[in-house]
Amino acid sequence: MDDRHEGDHHDIEVEGGALHGFERKISGILDDGSVGFRQPLLARNRKNTTSQIAIVGANTCPIESLDYEIFENDFFKQDWRSRKKIEILQYTFLKWALAFLIGLATGLVGFLNNLGVENIAGFKLLLIGNLMLKEKYFQAFFAFAGCNLILATAAASLCAFIAPAAAGSGIPEVKAYLNGIDAYSILAPSTLFVKIFGSIFGVAAGFVVGKEGPMVHTGACIANLLGQGGSKKYRLTWKWLRFFKNDRDRRDLITCGAAAGVAAAFRAPVGGVLFALEEAASWWRNALLWRTFFTTAVVAVVLRSLIEFCRSGRCGLFGKGGLIMFDVNSGPVLYSTPDLLAIVFLGVIGGVLGSLYNYLVDKVLRTYSIINEKGPRFKIMLVMAVSILSSCCAFGLPWLSQCTPCPIGIEEGKCPSVGRSSIYKSFQCPPNHYNDLSSLLLNTNDDAIRNLFTSRSENEFHISTLAIFFVAVYCLGIITYGIAIPSGLFIPVILAGASYGRLVGRLLGPVSQLDVGLFSLLGAASFLGGTMRMTVSLCVILLELTNNLLMLPLVMLVLLISKTVADCFNRGVYDQIVTMKGLPYMEDHAEPYMRNLVAKDVVSGALISFSRVEKVGVIWQALKMTRHNGFPVIDEPPFTEASELCGIALRSHLLVLLQGKRFSKQRTTFGSQILRSCKARDFGKAGLGKGLKIEDLDLSEEEMEMYVDLHPITNTSPYTVLETLSLAKAAILFRQLGLRHLCVVPKTPGRPPIVGILTRHDFMPEHVLGLYPHIDPLK
């Protein structure tokens, strides 16, 4: 839901130049129970939310669209014509240089993230292990729970007080941004800071969360920071980066950053490119493909170099972490008809469990909103409660598991092991025995996945152990996602999928030729496909993680089946979260009911437009009383014989023009004088600052009566459609071109030159079905 149509236009953002009856639209949906669309999480507040924590009921804020369209006004044309060949080469070089810096910085952050988690969690687990060896069980529990609680509180405090937008995965925010939606602090430096350290503390605190989703958000924040061109506020402006003062180039950089985040999290450079293509980006082209691939290649080289550096033991307790490929049986993969039937069964189970997981996550997020909307203290208290519950499960459940004798033939000292991470943890067991459930629960998430994927012995984990671990991880993953810490979904989903995959492998062992480690991998793939609904990128990421191309056909099959089954029940988890946030995301297809409507059917209200030469006071009043971001500019007599549409002027450009006070006392055209006194970079997109506001203008009464020529800042070639164009075609056009404003013009002459302006809000189901509640949304 777009909150731009609230009654208080000073606190909300309005995209187009038309005012609509927002309350009437919403009430039309609420009163008609036949409409099958769920309301966003904070629909009762009539506000859009931007951060993950806002999903659970906090920090609502206005949103606005991004200007991905090339704004062809006189300043743009003059700047383009005046560019020298050296400047064009400079621009091309900078795009590749920034791609390199994004890959370098993201790779470093990804490595430091793993280094921090491995050392903090390693110290904690060594402490617990030493206390357990001395049979100080209560001290071990309180030390374990206390360390987790301190780390969890630190992560929650950072998110609650410094950057609420850093909570959660961040992938829905990046996906929305690349679709053309901007919201306060999504990619701010404070969000980057909290995302890095909050993720380290949260993962090290033993939560069933991953650092992979936050790494995507981190990469996007790094790209946004590097592409800002400095800060005018602190006089740190980089002259070379003036070319990037627009949303179009920043979108490409952030796409590279998102791909780099996946590459850094999984050491999967090709998977990162495909993830950006399949899930994150809404627009793609070949030139961007090359730069994204180059960025992920830089990440891979950086990680490889840093891992080699740590092999000598100079990185503390840094072990294999999440940066080393998981070890799955690399022998020949032979399978028969029963094996294929087992894989089909895994795919079906993954689709059902994945759709159920998404449904329960939706319910939990809406329940948490009641707690989180009460303030930061309640958010922290919720995190502490979940931390205590997670600690009790991780330390208490292994007591339900029986001690298992060490496998015959294993080297002395390796079972049970005393180290930080091992598949054979003694816990409370006597010598030469190990507790298999503690090897999964009292370990880092990455080491638990490695233990599940191992193919050393089929009987390392009991069937009961796998069942208990699956239920625990499945439930803890659901209740953990949505609290005020940076948390990813990849690792919880892989853990749950790998556990039930290995469980199925154990049950089908007598009739199957496949290894239990391979079953574990296929289970993880099926659950990933059932929750996230990605296929190509997940397939490549899993293959890069395991370094075994022989499993490609099986992974492809299980992903396709799980996605197909899950799509019968609900949408992917990231799509659900985008909807819950109330972000007006433009899908790549039109809804069926849009075929029954035309463009003029969703355009309503009074249209605010300006003449080409307009009085300053009229513009100031319109900017003061509304929050519109686009205004039609009309050529009228005596400058033309009849009224005609000149184009669209942006709010930000109008504010710059008024601040410069290029006015005239006579109502005449003087655009050439404005072109000589201003430069295109004066109208560039604001960086980390918020840009000009109407309150920043200081205009006298005499200046209010003067005139200004709007032609130099007007986009004289806006996209226009006839009022009789199908709404479905208009929606597809709007989305594929990355528009912010779409002008609707009359079909017959003799009428005003513009009927209205379509923005992304006008295509949202809440808006359209609010205007026409009698329409069946499925037809």
Automatic annotation (TrEMBL):
GO MF: voltage-gated chloride channel activity
Cellular location(s): Membrane
GO cellular component, one term: plant-type vacuole membrane
Domain CBS: 713-777
Bilayer topology term: Multi-pass membrane protein
SUPFAM superfamilies, per database record: CBS-domain pair, Clc chloride channel
Keywords assigned by UniProt, alphabetized: CBS domain, Chloride, Chloride channel, Ion channel, Ion transport, Membrane, Repeat, Transmembrane, Transmembrane helix, Transport, Voltage-gated channel
Top-rank lineage group of the source organism: Eukaryota
Transmembrane domains' residue ranges: 88-109, 140-163, 183-209, 253-277, 283-303, 340-360, 380-400, 466-495, 507-528, 534-561
Cited InterPro entries: CBS_dom, CBS_dom_sf, Cl-channel/antiporter, Cl-channel_core, Cl_channel_pln, ClC
PROSITE patterns for the chain: CBS (PS51371)
Keyword Repeat in annotation: yes
Family the entry assigns: Belongs to the chloride channel (TC 2.A.49) family.
Name of the featured protein: Chloride channel protein
Species annotation: Arabidopsis thaliana x Arabidopsis arenosa
